[in-house]
Amino acid sequence: METVVSGIRPTGNLHLGNYFGAIRSFLDMQHSHNCYFFIADWHSLTTHPHPDNIVRNVRTILAEYLACGIDPEKATIYVQSDVPEALELYLYLNMNAYLGELERTTSFKEKARQQPDNVNAGLLTYPTLMAADILLHKAVKVPVGKDQEQNMEMARKFARRFNTIYGVDFFPEPASFSLGATAVKVPGLDGSGKMGKSEGNAIYLADDPKAISKKVMKAVTDAGPQEPNSIKPEPVENLFSMLRIVSSEEVYNHFDGLYNSCAIRYGDLKKQLAEDIVSFTAPIRERILEIQADEDYLDRVVREGAERARESAVRTVAEVRRIIGFR
Ligand code: ADP
Ligand code: TRP
């Protein structure tokens, strides 16, 4: 069975971008693959050196993961910091990761710009830690959104380089995976770009209907099409992309038709979109609240997940030590 690994940093609640970009693929794969889904708490230290309550954040994300339908009986769900073997692999990979290539990654450059007073070595080596997460289980598929493409290229490069340097065929090259033919980018509704926690434009799975409606009604639009069948400007296209993601084809076609005949009323579209988002998130939100209240269950899930993840990690790291030449 093929092995799948993916992680999400516990820097905020899960939003629709996380769900449609990554989690939906996990849900599909957990039935047919050997899946490891983890909470990347070490990674979050690169941007949040003082997580104000890391244990609570991890719990929250864990409950949200489970509420989405990730099944701990089928998949291994664990917390990154419960599996210290990843750090040893991170060290070995760092020994063959070059400053130039790490400095050139767009996410490093972007983060360095966003936090000029904290350009730490963890930020620089973010891609090696991510590669360690993946290679630790010798994963071949990694469900992630489009924004992770460059990190994935680095992971493949580090896997190949390890094999070449030590003359082995040990690590497989991991591929990004998305459910559809191409990676999904869930847009923000504030005009341009993707939906994200750091972008401050996210609609969260745990948002109540009122909050969702408020966010959707505030979405940026324009004065409306001036002639039939005109091209949609980005903010409007983003609304339609969202409609395509959460609403039925019928609803999408209805509003697309109205747009093309210049009869669209954005208020109606937004109202429908908000309703469709709420019907999608409401059951998840209910489960989040239930699962969060069950501390014993959450404890058991992380404990058992850590045990299973460590079994695989210990095996890989022992092999890596042997390959490098440690006894
Ligand atoms: P954020 O960007 O909100 O900080 P993360 O970086 O923690 O979210 O992303 C976790 C996962 O969700 C990654 O696999 C990422 O590719 C995916 N993801 C996040 N935002 C989006 C989006 N708007 N569209 C598609 N996938 C996304
Ligand atoms: N870098 C990913 C993100 O920002 C999170 C992550 C860390 C990850 N390690 C990973 C994703 C390993 C997939 C596999 O979203």
UniProtKB/TrEMBL annotation:
<dbReference type="GO" id="GO:0004830">
    <property type="term" value="F:tryptophan-tRNA ligase activity"/>
</dbReference>
<comment type="subunit">
    <text>Homodimer.</text>
</comment>
<dbReference type="InterPro" id="IPR050203">
    <property type="entry name" value="Trp-tRNA_synthetase"/>
</dbReference>
<dbReference type="GO" id="GO:0005829">
    <property type="term" value="C:cytosol"/>
</dbReference>
<feature type="binding site">
    <location>
        <begin position="17"/>
        <end position="18"/>
    </location>
    <ligand>
        <name>ATP</name>
    </ligand>
</feature>
<dbReference type="GO" id="GO:0006436">
    <property type="term" value="P:tryptophanyl-tRNA aminoacylation"/>
</dbReference>
<comment type="similarity">
    <text>Belongs to the class-I aminoacyl-tRNA synthetase family.</text>
</comment>
<feature type="binding site">
    <location>
        <position position="186"/>
    </location>
    <ligand>
        <name>ATP</name>
    </ligand>
</feature>
<comment type="function">
    <text>Catalyzes the attachment of tryptophan to tRNA(Trp).</text>
</comment>
<keyword id="KW-0963">Cytoplasm</keyword>
<keyword id="KW-0547">Nucleotide-binding</keyword>
<dbReference type="InterPro" id="IPR002305">
    <property type="entry name" value="aa-tRNA-synth_Ic"/>
</dbReference>
<keyword id="KW-0067">ATP-binding</keyword>
<feature type="binding site">
    <location>
        <position position="133"/>
    </location>
    <ligand>
        <name>L-tryptophan</name>
    </ligand>
</feature>
<dbReference type="GO" id="GO:0005524">
    <property type="term" value="F:ATP binding"/>
</dbReference>
<feature type="short sequence motif" description="'KMSKS' region">
    <location>
        <begin position="194"/>
        <end position="198"/>
    </location>
</feature>
<protein>
    <recommendedName>
        <fullName>Tryptophan--tRNA ligase</fullName>
        <ecNumber>6.1.1.2</ecNumber>
    </recommendedName>
</protein>
<keyword id="KW-0648">Protein biosynthesis</keyword>
<feature type="short sequence motif" description="'HIGH' region">
    <location>
        <begin position="10"/>
        <end position="18"/>
    </location>
</feature>
<dbReference type="InterPro" id="IPR001412">
    <property type="entry name" value="aa-tRNA-synth_I_CS"/>
</dbReference>
<feature type="binding site">
    <location>
        <begin position="145"/>
        <end position="147"/>
    </location>
    <ligand>
        <name>ATP</name>
    </ligand>
</feature>
<feature type="binding site">
    <location>
        <begin position="9"/>
        <end position="11"/>
    </location>
    <ligand>
        <name>ATP</name>
    </ligand>
</feature>
<dbReference type="InterPro" id="IPR024109">
    <property type="entry name" value="Trp-tRNA-ligase_bac-type"/>
</dbReference>
<dbReference type="Pfam" id="PF00579">
    <property type="entry name" value="tRNA-synt_1b"/>
</dbReference>
<feature type="binding site">
    <location>
        <begin position="194"/>
        <end position="198"/>
    </location>
    <ligand>
        <name>ATP</name>
    </ligand>
</feature>
<dbReference type="InterPro" id="IPR002306">
    <property type="entry name" value="Trp-tRNA-ligase"/>
</dbReference>
<keyword id="KW-0436">Ligase</keyword>
<keyword id="KW-0030">Aminoacyl-tRNA synthetase</keyword>
<dbReference type="InterPro" id="IPR014729">
    <property type="entry name" value="Rossmann-like_a/b/a_fold"/>
</dbReference>
